[in-house]
Amino acid sequence: MDVSLSKPAIARRASRRSCGPRRVALFTGAYNHIADGVSLTLNRLVQYLERHGTKVRVFAPTVDDPPVDHHGTLIPVPSFRAPGRPDYRISLGLSPNVRRQLEAFRPTLFHIATPDLLGYQALQLAQDWDVPVVASYHTHFSSYLKYYHLSFLEGMLWTYLRRFYQQCQHVYVPSPSIAEELRAHGITSGIRLWPRGVETDTFNPKHRSVAWRRELGIADDEVVVTFVSRLVWEKGLDVYADVIARLEAERIPHRSLIVGDGPVRRELEAQLPNTLFTGYLSGDALTRAYASSDVFLFPSDTEAFGNVTIEAMASGLPTVCADAGGSADHVVHGTTGLLVPAGDRDAFFDATVRLVTDPELRARMGAAARERAEAYDWEEVLGRMHRYYDELLLPAAFAGDGASVPEPAFS
């Protein structure tokens, strides 16, 4: 592809040749081998796209017995376990067999969800084939570096991300704060807001269960302080553990509940012997756990969107969250919950105590949180993607000069 062309010119050329059904090739580092926010969001997107007539092929790593019953057609790509994090996998890129299947599919648009080797090769191939390419930003990579003692790589990482995303015609970001940070690092072209949604009937205060609480040994009047997410340190679990330990030390009545699983679970169980660990929950069990809690404590400052924060809010919970990333875009400080400077353990403790000891404040903020969450409708959120794709693919949007552009050469 002639890189001297402007992005609108590239889009015009691609859109004129894309008559017929949309054929989207989606490239991601996580789809069914791990049940995280990225996988669940992309599965929901694929389900929506196929329901509305778009053909999709997903190119991603997988495992023999994946925990996610995925939607759509998955083309497995070669991968290996991530060092130190065997629950994640690192893609090795497009093998000859995978590339042949991609050629046979003849995509009209490439959608890259992970800027890894697979994503980089997909980007190059889209340019070679002169096919529009978009990207969605799911993981706030730079915020993870400090947890692996790799902060010295931040400059290099942003240089790579800037070069990668500036070659995409659209970059879909989950929140305004992430858009601002990308722009601050020189990623300015084609940014579009693509938030996440929540099923407000599924995540709902009506699912609160006194019986479920009693089965876990929780008294009816005990205030349950809950954390829901993957059990990895970058989710702020050290801060959560510190807050719970201080609540216990100062004999402030409460119960602590952790929903989720991950590589640091055993270490956490040793640190918090009085905390209830449910393991990974989904479906009715997850909605019941949310609704049967009283305070949602989520110190993570690495969230690009913060799915669990919205789920907690929809469940009627007041939240104590880091004033960073996606959570900061959802929580209205002092109205739906409390925002705390990231990593400030004293502030997290004080905010949690405030909610634990004030039932009227919990009730008022929980009701406001529920009301705010109702604005995050999945159908509207997913419908945006069709509109964004149409900006690049609908011939009528760029009609006028009558020029004819042949189908790309898939080779």
Structure description:
- There is one protein chain.
- By secondary structure, the protein is of the alpha/beta class.
- Helices cover 40% and strands 16% of the residues.
- The chain contains 16 helices and 15 strands.
- It has helices at residues 7-16, 37-51, 96-105, 117-129, 141-144, 154-165, 176-184, 210-215, 237-249, 265-271, 283-291, 307-314, 325-330, 345-356, 359-373, 378-393, and strands at 23-27, 55-60, 73-76, 79-82, 85-91, 109-112, 133-136, 170-173, 191-193, 224-228, 255-259, 276-279, 295-298, 319-322, 337-340.
- It has a seven-stranded parallel β-sheet with strand order 3-2-1-6-7-8-9, sandwiched between helices.
- Helix 7 (176-184) links the parallel strand 8 and strand 9 (191-193).
- The longest helix is centred in the C-terminal third of the chain and has 16 residues, at 378-393.
- The chain is globular and about 65 Å long.
- It starts with 6 loop residues before the first helix and ends in an 18-residue tail after the last helix.
- The model is unreliable at 1-18 and 398-411 (pLDDT under 50).
Q: What's the quick description here?
A:
The chain has 411 residues and is α/β, with parallel strands linked by helices. The protein contains 16 helices and 15 strands. The strands form three sheets. Strands 3-2-1-6-7-8-9 form a seven-stranded parallel β-sheet, sandwiched between helices. The chain has a six-stranded parallel β-sheet with strand order 12-11-10-13-14-15, with helices on both faces. The protein has a two-stranded antiparallel ribbon with strand order 4-5.
